Amino acid sequence: MPYAISNGGWLSLLVLIVFCLISCYTGFLLKRCLDHTPGLRTYPDIAEAAFGKIGRLAISQQQQSQVESELLS
């Protein structure tokens, strides 16, 4: 981390903090979504509740392609 700050300056530290706050807020929203609707357990479940069957298929495909790309690398 000190190397990254020495190369990026104080602005890089500020950007890191902003990304941490965004990640924390996203986790908070996911928790609210999961608590609000019983039966939701996975990302595809959340996508189906928000966007219907197309959302579920899109998220499932994205997750599958991510797993396959990790296996290939």
TrEMBL record:
InterPro entries: AA_transpt_TM. Its main location: membrane. Keywords: Amino-acid transport, Membrane, Transmembrane, Transmembrane helix, Transport. It comes from Acorus calamus. It is found in: Membrane. One of its GO terms (cellular component) is membrane. The keyword Signal does not apply. GO terms for biological process: amino acid transport. It comes from the Eukaryota. It holds the Pfam family Aa_trans. This is Amino acid transporter transmembrane domain-containing protein. The chain crosses the membrane at residues 12-30. Residues 1-63 form the Amino acid transporter transmembrane domain.
